[in-house]
Amino acid sequence: MPGLFDGTRFQRPVTCEVCEKPMAECQCPRDASGTVLLPNQQTAVIRMEKRPGGKVVTVAEGLDPKASDMEGLLKKLKVRCAAGGTVEKGRMEVQGDHRQVVGEVLRGEGYRVKVR
Q: Is residue 6 a part of any domain in this protein?
């Protein structure tokens, strides 16, 4: 990626607007359009769903799948809840009613949370 003032003695690389590191070194979470989307700018909606056969699942949705490490978050949730789970259609599902625990974990990661 060419930098500002490319080819002159004032040349410098393009930097991230949040961490001010060169774009090649930036680790800031970005959405599909390339805009920085930090956890505190995302709201997770947590609710419980009843499935056929009486099964209960806690669903966390509303997070950007590109800017959030949903697989990493789900791994933390599964360990903390001692339950199985999956990421489907841009939402995380944990087996059982674990709304409060899921909310605590996501708040600890910096996300805004609404529990329903």
A: no
Read off the pLDDT band of 1 (50, 70, 90): low
What is the span of the domain harbouring residue 59?
39-115
d(CA 15, CA 93): 36
What is each CA distance from 84 to 9, 56, 78, 112, in whole angstroms?
57, 12, 6, 23
Rounded to the nearest 5 percent, the helix, strand and coil shares of the chain are 20, 30, 50
Domains in the chain, number: 1
CATH label of the domain that carries residue 45: 3.30.780.10
Q: What is the pTM of this model?
A: 0.80
Q: 22 or 2, which is more confident? A: 22
